[in-house]
């Protein structure tokens, strides 16, 4: 190394020393500029620009052609960590290879999503792995290990986990607050992140848009209190897009952006994703905060140091030593035969057989009718790459059974739209060059999906064009021309047949038919405006006319009233092909861009009404009807009369081939449900109820009968379980049992181990996944499955003492094929730590550490840290603290409160012993006052606190 070479360029030095040296050479202005997502180059030091963020949830996204693997929820359904690790490895290799050709491709990848699938109506259900924190962390750990690579120093890519923390709703996602009690925080939401971070392949996290306990996640005190204590590595915290501005603009948490930026930086945010590529606003806010004394240079240094740590690990400063740089330059790891085979393997392993009365697998000579809205579709989602290869269920069945044995009916209504003057909407033909989507087949090209302007707009004529009307439910539909082009609206407002699929951040291909006079208005959902027929073509009405039409006023004259002429009902086409088949396969589900996606939650578990009608028509025409659900989330469907039901997430480029091979029995299905499938909407909690314990949510606590339970999945083989042994030794529970394939085909089984505390002192899960193993067995073969689970996995968060506690007593160990299909069980007795009463006489009680509550929510004690509790909407709420030890006796009670209202304190269900209320409302929600009252108690009692009005309670103390 030359004496003139600075130490930060010396690969023989530890990364930490090299970061120190580089930090010492950067000016404050240069360091400040690094805080934006698009960090500029520092030419005087030879430092290249750097961008945090590259989407890679199930393949490299948004950067053109790439291998597209199954959606994350489908990868979760494989219950196969080694498979998922290989998928992550393939994705990271493609990221490196793509970057060699395009420096816009980033190596700081924003994936995986480890938010728990607590609520199946969450629009982003497709992005998570499971409702269970242990399964989620196991799959996420495998994916991050694949993304990271196995070199001890250099990383192939640097994964960032999304979205910190307790984020499970799109409705009001940037202003809603998740009320998360301490037990749920530690036992549920933090657990998925913690286990993955502790495994050592995570470069950072991304905070979510929502607030937790009244405080925006971008100010989360848990970033420092918990996250950064789980690893010795520097973790990079990248903001979500636009979230820093939300702190002022939508959340109104601060008055100025300088305050907000400073608070986020001090809380631990290191990279600000805001205002796209324009870094000037963030840089100006940081400089303003520095000038105002809200930040110090040390605050900036801490963030920049963590950024540089990631950049060094990615080999940016050591291209000659980076083991991944040379391979990427060849492009050899891009769209390889191995990756194509892996995409098919992952798609096959993700298929879950929910029910089978013997109709599956289908024999080679079977005549198959494949019907449904998704029968000839290979759908992509917002985080998909551009397809290089694709297969639909129809194509897969053609390939497997032969085109002469497969018939098809999409099952959509074929319609014409007649105008008031008797003419019809007409789609002008497009030549091949202009009609073809840019890029490759199925491209998610933003310009295409937003509505192209290089094609002629729709017009009208005497005959018109027969359109496929595809009803996705909840009143949302798409319209498709005979050549496959979807009607779309461009920025100029004209309606064209210009998209190969619905998609984009704002979907421009969806419409609604609204009854109006003797016909219908056709309202474009993207703009909210009705369609009108003008001399220069079909377009959406101007904004003022749209408002009038919506109100039924004068503007209605500008909106066309269409008569819907049905040429063929979808049910009739389904009936026709179903009647002549041996087996009917109805492919139903969702389009990932419609009625459930980022920015939009679902409203029901039910299948869209049109798809239910198609299913009924198929079943009426042919009892041998198989339902294949291809969806990003669970459905509640009537399966009683169906002989077979399967589910798979949208399976990427190999989805159709994989499904066909499962249906034909080439592969025995072995996917398992990663979340509960509820039977009815009535089984669901409120979308914003994050208390999985009190709300009895997920398989952990749900006491009803699910449609299909967590972990469920059938096989073409059968499996026997036996010879269970369990022993407590060396701080762990060792469990072993034998699994035997008692069937006639080679198949995979997913053996699952659950635990249940038999005599808990607090509410504990009905059963909780401890471990699982996917294994392959030939007919008649057996294998011994062994797990060693640390006793710490059986602990719970003891709110009485603010720490984990392993409770002594009996624990049932349950072994089987799902959370409800238990084949073997035994009980072990654990010597844990007995419960002791809360020492409230000595230290009082934090309001948030309740055992039970009703009518309350948790809010922020201050803008920086701490929790308080208040009654929901300023009404009345109750808090219960069990087994409170007042010692030899207390004579007074003190409450720390802010706001207006009253606090009532009672013992053991008796009447209020003390009522405390401020003389006047405090100046603000964070201006706490201490109120005192006489209060007599000794020994151990339950303490009940009632909150009335808009009062925040932070702490209850006792004296005397």
UniProtKB/TrEMBL annotation:
One of its GO terms (molecular function) is alpha-L-arabinofuranosidase activity. Coiled coil: none annotated. Keywords: Hydrolase, Signal. InterPro entries: Actin-crosslinking (IPR008999), BXL (IPR044993), CBM6 (IPR005084), Cellulose-bd_IV (IPR006584), Fn3-like (IPR026891), Galactose-bd-like_sf (IPR008979), GH (IPR017853), Glyco_hydro_3_C (IPR002772). GO terms for biological process: arabinan catabolic process; xylan catabolic process. It comes from the Bacteria. The keyword Hydrolase applies. The keyword Ribosomal protein does not apply. Residues 843-959 form the CBM6 domain. Catalyzes the hydrolysis of a non-reducing terminal alpha-L-arabinopyranosidic linkage in ginsenoside Rb2 (alpha-L-arabinopyranosyl-(1->6)-alpha-D-glucopyranosyl) to release alpha-D-glucopyranosyl (Rd). It is not able to hydrolyze alpha-L-arabinofuranosyl-(1->6)-alpha-D-glucopyranosyl (Rc). PANTHER family: BETA-D-XYLOSIDASE 5-RELATED, SUGAR HYDROLASE-RELATED. Belongs to the glycosyl hydrolase 3 family. This is Exo-alpha-(1->6)-L-arabinopyranosidase. It comes from Streptomyces lividans 1326.
